[in-house]
Amino acid sequence: MTAGTRYAIVGSGNIGTALAGLFARAGIEVSIANTRGPESIGGLGAGVRAVGLEEALESDVIFMAIPFGAVEQFGKVLPDWAGKTVVDTTNAHYAPNSAEILRGRLSTRYAAEKLPGAELVKAFNQLPANTLASEFDPALGRRVIFIATDSPEAGDRIAELVGDLGMAAVQLGRIDEGGRLIQAPNALVLRNLIERPLF
Ligand SMILES: NC(=O)c1ccc[n+]([C@@H]2O[C@H](COP(=O)([O-])OP(=O)(O)OC[C@H]3O[C@@H](n4cnc5c(N)ncnc54)[C@H](OP(=O)(O)O)[C@@H]3O)[C@@H](O)[C@H]2O)c1
Questions:
Q1: What are φ and ψ of residue 85, in 5° steps?
Q2: pLDDT band at 2 (very low <50, low <70, confident <90, very high)
Q3: CB under 6 Å to ligand 1: residues?
């Protein structure tokens, strides 16, 4: 983990809660916010701090764990997302009207348009929240998390974080290349893969 990196999760539903649990288990501090305010969030574990949305947005790495339909509105909360790495956990495929909204664009490309300046990393969208949240015996291997981004540096940072969270990162390259494979319902979505040592 890069020393001093501030992490935040926006969204305290299924995926936000699963992510918070991963951070808590790994002993990495994270803040978490939603639309209703910090008093509506509680008990997510040591090191998980419920904050207002404004404070969450001060973080360096922001997990966007909100419905796909909320992405456009969320993008407007900052005029300029430069300097932010945003991890896109959304799956447009399951959202109403997504085909009309996307008009052929990949969902993370759409998110990048709505969050101008942000480094978008698609990750943590491929597994059901309860699978992501469930503990896995490290003696059996590490759960695979796929990553796609147009920023190799951001990809490396999130891959390192994935390792610190006790999982195995597999970088798939650009959003319009490997990233396509983790856009629901494509080939690598809903695949609970485990990496084992080579020997
Ligand atoms: N559920 C899964 O198994 C799963 C798996 C993989 C990926 N995903 C994707 O992950 C995303 C989240 O899914 P979920 O099941 O966690 O949804 P969810 O349980 O409905 O939670 C959504 C959260 O987003 C917050 N939110 C909505 N609009 C917001 C905004 N403009 N600003 C800040 N917070 C906002 C909500 O705030 P309030 O609490 O205040 O309403 C809520 O906490 C979706 O895009 C989904 O496709 C889900």
A1: -100, 125
A2: low
A3: 10-16, 34-36, 53, 65-68, 70, 73-74, 89-91, 94, 125, 128-129
